[in-house]
Amino acid sequence: MYGEGLSTALAAHLLREYGAAVQKPKIQNGGLRREKLVRAVEYIQDQLDTDLTVAGIAQAVGISQYHFTKLFKESTGQSPYQYVVEARVRRAKELLTTGRFTISEVAHHLGFADQSHLTRHFKRVFGLPPNTLLRRLQNF
């Protein structure tokens, strides 16, 4: 029982300390110039609770939608859609760990279709559903 409690405490500590970091793009050769990539990532982070579109992000960066999509994927290894979904999931985790919102409220606030849509992506990114994370944090 002691070992289980210790492992739960360690997991909660690691999640609290290292899990809420803002997702930084992986910079590869080619792709968007650094300043345009930084502008795109900042725009995405600022607009996570709105209806983000590739066209809107490309316009904020100042290049065409097709060109932006191609260069963004070269720069980060992810399509803009994949990057936005993962950024929303990371923000969902931050909001859930505050304890002020339900999973459904967070899903609605961040533009997921419903709680199950958030749960599916959350599990893909973090390897566990959000309710399991919340239970582990409550037991800590």
Structure description:
The protein is mostly helical and 140 residues long. The chain contains eight helices and no strands. The chain has helices spanning 2-18, 34-46, 54-61, 65-76, 80-98, 103-109, 115-126, 130-139. It is elongated, with a radius of gyration of 17 Å. The two termini are 14 Å apart. The model has no long low-confidence stretch (mean pLDDT 86).
Keywords:
140 residues, mainly alpha
The helix tally amounts to: 8
What is the H/E order? HHHHHHHH
Strand-residue proportion:
under 5%
Number of strands: 0
Shape: elongated
Rounded to the nearest angstrom, the distance between the terminal CA atoms is 14 Å
Helical fraction equals: over 70%
* Category by helix and strand content: mainly alpha
Average residue-wise pLDDT: 86
Radius of gyration: 17 Å
Please give the oligomerization state of what you see.
single chain
Q: How is the biggest beta sheet arranged? A: none
Instruction: Flag low-confidence runs.
Output: none
Could you outline the blueprint of secondary structure elements for this entry?
Layout: H1 2-18, H2 34-46, H3 54-61, H4 65-76, H5 80-98, H6 103-109, H7 115-126, H8 130-139
Summarize the structure.
The chain has 140 residues and is mainly α. It has helices at 2-18, 34-46, 54-61, 65-76, 80-98, 103-109, 115-126, 130-139.
